[in-house]
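Researcher: Sequence of TRAP transporter large permease subunit follows. Predict its structure.
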Amino acid sequence: MVDLIAHNLAPIMFTCVMAMLLIGYPVAFTLAAGGLFFFVIGVELSTISSEIRLFWPLLQSHPERIYGIMYNDTLLAVPFFTFMGLILERSRMAEDLLETIGQLFGPVRGGIAYAVVVVGALLAATTGVVAASVIAMGLISLPIMMRYNYNSGFATGAIAASGTLAQIVPPSLVLIVMADQLGRSVGDMYVGALLPALIIVGVYCLFVFAVTLVRPQWAPALPPETRTLGGGVWSLVGVLAAAVGLYFAAYHLLFTEMREEVRVVWSATTATIAALVFSLANRHLKLGILSRLAEQVVIVLIPPLALIFLVLGTIFLGIATPTEGGAMGATGALILAFAKRRLTLSVLKQALDATTKLSAFVMFILIGARVFGLTFYGINGNVWIEELLLSLPGGETGFLITVTILVFILGCFLDFFEIAFIMVPLLAPAAETLGIDLIWFGIILGINLQTSFLTPPFGFSLFYLRSVAPMKEWKDTVSGRMLPAVRTLEIYRGALPFIVIQFLMILLVIAFPGLVTHYKKESVVDPSQIEITIPGFGEGGGLEGSPFGTPGDDAQGGGLQLPGMEGLPPLGAPEQGGDAAPPALPGDDLSQPPSFD
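Model: Prediction complete. Tokens:
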């Protein structure tokens, strides 16, 4: 019996720890306690089984391993991006974006749903926090959608799904943690995730369009009396066209002496600032050139878009590391909040408190995962996991499908941080053995974790929306009507179509890895074009200025003279005859040392 336990200690440990997590015990303490408990068992069984490589002095490695977490520069990006998102969320940026884009899409059927998807993507690229996005849009958009007779399930599904975009749209915290655990560059992870994220946003909009065709009564357009900004779309198109023209003019005329990426940055900055300044002048000087709609859209949209470009653009162009980009983003968020006169001491304190709590949460989970990992690897748990996964039928595809299903199920019960710190280090070696690109693998897991936020009954996004949706009949202060409550079943039902979209997206990324692997910059070198030139030491060899240069007359500095040996000929300097033999040393007896009389 003891031999059987010793041989199967790894699966026993893994099952016990996962069971405790699923029951609901705190993650960090469960991992650490499980690691220490099974460490004691492993040490006692190490005399019986050669597969167990645990001994008491190994415990002394824990301080160094924990100290290594604190030295991890990559994880510095987590508090920076969290702080940036919380400052923007507390400064009511989501409210401004939803109101403005809702007015822009108002005349279109399903316009508020389109606005929710677009704002969800913008919030994902700025806040990067699912809870903040879902709660903000639930508080602002859901009452408006219900006021104008949107279907409750469709409205809640669009809000919950758009909020989860923060899981996959850079600068996502999920991608930072995933890159750290996979041992890959955060910048590469961001570049790889960009195209799948844009496709997901596009498919969400296509779904809204399909609903407006099949069930037009589910998503009506805003009535004309609610469009307070009026028309003027062509005015907005004109501003955009002028900004694009200014970008190309600056790129080809003003910044021609700069290198490529710097030219792009400064050209885009010039065009953006010009559009913003012109819109502000039109408003404050009452020029009347732009419509109110165009003016409002430019003034509200450009600051967050500029912040997104400041963060992601500098990372993608290689100007800044993700950690530096996060620091610039946090600074930019403070500047935006200050410019809008919404940066108060209370807002700053709330953002710092929440950032500290999340950073401590991540740190303690990492510490628990390190304690768990030392024991699990000491009992060959990694070998057991790898052999189990590599024995799956179907090779690479079978492995990816199985891992997708496993992570999806775990995502219904565990937070993405827990899955990233526990499961990803165990799955990555098997993926690498199969030759799977780890950036590709990380993006698949990221989309999977995004899907898990929507799955009933434990989807976190659904919980966040449930906390702000009306649970009983309520009176709309604008219309004066009594509106029905939003039932939990309607929230769950509304999320189902978006779960299907997410699954199809996972299959698409698995089928077409090029959607992610375009991050690789391949350089093709033709061996026949390689030329190696070795400089010569003779005349014209290129080393005339060297003390080892062209032999010649001593007066011309041609040879190498040794100090204090004027009687010897210059080393390497032949006589004037050219090919004559060098002069013999005194005495011509090579068995005797030379004399220097």
